Amino acid sequence: MRFMRSSIFRSCGLLAVLTSAALAQTSSNDPRQELFNLREDVRLLTQRVGEMSLTVEQLNRDNSSLQAKASQSFVTLEQLNSAIATINRTTQAALTDQKRETLEQVSARIEKLAKQTQAAIDAVAKSQATRPAVQTSFSEEFPKEGINYTVQTGDTLSGIAKKNGAKLSDIRNANKITDDSKVRVGQTLFIPQSK
User: In terms of domains, do 97 and 56 share one?
Assistant: First the structure.
């Protein structure tokens, strides 16, 4: 019976390791929900193991009862060993089934998380592919005369160019602007203007 208890506790340890591994690989849009689901699975498994422990204890009591009756009746040691072996086989089969079911559930969740992660990676890759190229080199071919302009709320670089009758590319080159969206309110820009 000690062997059965240690087997059950080893199974609990294995289930805890598998659950921890699943948690470590969790990377989804709602990690709190996945964590809650995994905790619920662990709680249910712990409950099942507790039930199995109670069953083992009941079997121990039954065994003790049988031993007491054996002293009063003519039950052979071979019959007792056979009954215990049957109980051990039944318990081991139940534990094996439970482990298999748990592994299937964990595998399904890991596969689902892998698909969600891949979809997120694909979405990021797609958004990176559609971003406009960043200008990294600038030309000195722009009018050297012009005015200073302070960026106001609601201004865009193209709007500033239109408002001042300047070329957008000249403003970018003169101010070394790599990203039009990085222009901020209060910033002073040099606006090149042709004669």
Answer: yes
Cα 105 to Cα 35, 52, 183: the distances in Å are 14, 20, 51
Q: Which of 184, 6, 167, 165 is nearest to 91 (CA)?
A: 6
Q: How many domains, in total, are found in the chain?
A: 2
pLDDT tens string 161-186: 999 999 998 999 999 888 888 889 99
DSSP 40-93: HHHHHHHHHHHHHHHHHHHHHHHHHHHHHHHHHS---HHHHHHHHHHHHHHHHH
Burial of 23 (0-12, 13-18, 19+ CB in 10 A): middle
Residue 175 in any domain: the answer is yes
Do 161 and 155 form a contact (C-beta atoms < 8 A)? Answer: no
Dump pLDDT digits (tens) for 14-67. 555 555 555 555 445 688 899 899 999 999 999 999 899 999 999 999 998 888
